[in-house]
Amino acid sequence: MNRAVLQQLGIDLPLLPTTSVGSLPKPPDLVAARARFARGGMSQRELDEITEEAVLFWLQRQEELGLDVLVDGEMYRGDMVAYFADQLDGMELGGLVRAYGNRYYHKPVIRGPVRWEQPMTVGWWRFAQGHTKKPVKAIITGPYTMMDWSFNEHYPDRRGACLALAHEMRKEVEALASAGAKIVQIDEPALSVRPDELPMAIEATRIVTEGIAVYSITHACYGAFEQIYPGMLGLSTHNLDLAISQSAIDWIGIMRRAPFTKDLSVGVLDVHTYAVESVQAVRGCIERAMELVPRRALWVTPDCGLKTRTVEEAIEKLGNMVVATQLVRESAAGRQS
Ligand SMILES: [Zn+2]
Question: Residue 336 — pLDDT band, cuts 50, 70, 90?
């Protein structure tokens, strides 16, 4: 499938590459430091040092667990949209809005023309990649979700806002690629919110990725995929990361409509429960996914970012994911010989 793209980039991954989706739990000392910083009780430099320690902590854990593609864990981020909105010219953070449950966040507002001013994630990506020999995946929030989760007071319509964001977020991907990033993930959790807007999301993704020499992934954790399949295969990214193993959707039935033509990252860990999935349960998920796509096209991931779990839960879950993947690799190798 897209192994050739990875090979051209000089990235050699085993069968069933394992990776985290993106966010990992912040260690308690970083949580405390961020709260202190927010109250004005700590300098940016001091916070950055504690954040770097947390990134190093997670790089080391991921290496020990045996993950193949590492992440920086997004230790420096609060909200996935606000982090970028805060740094783009033309956007600012509005008042508190209720998200789900009792979670509140500052919903971004587009007040003027959106403009990328300087790299937003490149420094952190470079820091992480500088401390490991394994590839570190760069992660940005996609333009469609940025638009969908913000108030638009400037552009005439959603499409205008979405495509403007796409042109600016592309500059971040270009900056990441120039810094040496080979794998870039675009988070689009809003992808299937409005099936009639799928062509807009596809156009925006093409603007973000077209012609840039990276292996690209779209992460869309939940949604009405049955309504946007096979249309979603029109996305320009090489890999679609879907929480399909936990969903009630009949993927085998859906894929009978049209074969899956991309690499598939299958989410095998439920990030919303503290219960740690057993090796056997994860193995079953991977083996079911192997019925959907050729094994060389399959990646193994949690179904979303693990930031809502504790550090210990995340380590245990990822550990079982890696062990289960190794067992499937061994039995696949056995069947081949
Ligand atoms: Zn997600």
Answer: low
In the reported structure, the alpha carbon of residue 188 is separated from the centroid of ligand 1 by a whole-number distance in angstroms of 8
Q: Distance from the CA of 2 to the center of ligand 1, in angstroms?
A: 22
Share of the chain above pLDDT 70, in %: 98
232 contacts: CB under 8 Å, gap ≥ 6 = 191, 192, 198, 202, 220, 225, 240
Distance CA(220)–CA(254), nearest Å, equals: 17
**Is the separation of the CB atoms in 242 and 262 below 8 Å?**
no
Domain spans in the chain, listed from the N-terminal domain onward: 3-84+121-148+156-336
Distance between Cα 190 and ligand 1 center (Å)? 10
**Amino acid 193: pLDDT:** 87
Rounded Cα gap, residues 316 and 278, in angstroms: 10
Kindly tell me if the per-residue pLDDT of 337 is higher than 60: no
pTM above 0.85, yes or no: yes
Centroid of ligand 1 to alpha carbon of 220 (angstroms): 6
Separation of 55 CA from ligand 1 center, angstroms?
A: 20
Rounded distance between C-alpha atoms, residue 319 and residue 305, angstroms: 15
**CA separation for the pair 19, 59 (Å, rounded):** 12
Q: Tell which CATH classification among 3.20.20.210, 3.40.50.11010, 3.40.190.10, 1.10.260.40 matches the domain 3-84+121-148+156-336.
A: 3.20.20.210
State in Å: Cα 334 to ligand 1 middle: 34
126-176 residue pLDDT tens? 999 999 999 999 999 999 999 999 999 999 999 999 999 999 999 999 999
